[in-house]
Design brief:
Helix content is about 90%, strand content about 0%. It is mainly alpha-helical. It is rod-shaped.
Length: about 160
């Protein structure tokens, strides 16, 4: 085997040094700078992506905050509209209730007046009926008809008692 022959070792070492020297130069000046550039480019892209993600996160948080603020304002406006509607309905209801109360009071007063008139009329008729009945009773009991003035006086005295 020629590799193990000590006389061939010197040219083999020289070619070994030349080959590794050329590989070292190629690696140091061509391959490693390209690999380094790719690694740097990738690191820059990752950093840019992280910055963009952070920017998007801030924008999203700002949008969420704006949305929540708009939602809170909308809720506040809705509550104000509901409260205004309630107040308006309450005012309308109170006005209608007052109107109905006035109408009921008027009708009640009219009914009370009619009742009072009917009672007075009935009391007058009761007096007339009581006077006639008393005159008939006295006539049947004693056989003589009393005067109308005496019977009315007696009925009036009985009503007061």
């Amino acid at each position: 085997m020629p590799q193990l022959n000590p006389a061939d070792w010197a040219p083999q070492l020289i070619w070994l040094l030349i080959t590794f020297g050329i590989l070292y130069v190629l690696m140091a000046w061509v391959a490693l700078p390209r690999i380094g550039a790719v690694i740097d480019k990738r690191a820059a892209k990752i950093a840019a992506d992280l910055d963009a993600a952070e920017k998007n996160k801030r924008e999203t948080e700002d949008a969420i905050a704006a949305y929540e603020q708009a939602l809170a304002e909308a809720k506040q406006k809705a509550h104000a509209i509901v409260d205004e509607g309630r107040a308006k309905l309450k005012a309308e209801t109170d006005a209608e209730r007052a109107k109905l109360d006035q109408e009921l009071a008027k009708k009640s007063a009219e009914a009370a007046a009619r009742i009072e008139k009917a009672r007075d009329s009935a009391m007058k008729e009761i007096s007339t009926v009581a006077t006639e009945a008393a005159a008939d009773i006295v006539t049947k009991l004693i056989g003589t008809a009393p005067s109308k003035a005496e019977v009315e006086k007696a009925v009036a005295a009985a009503r007061k008692a």
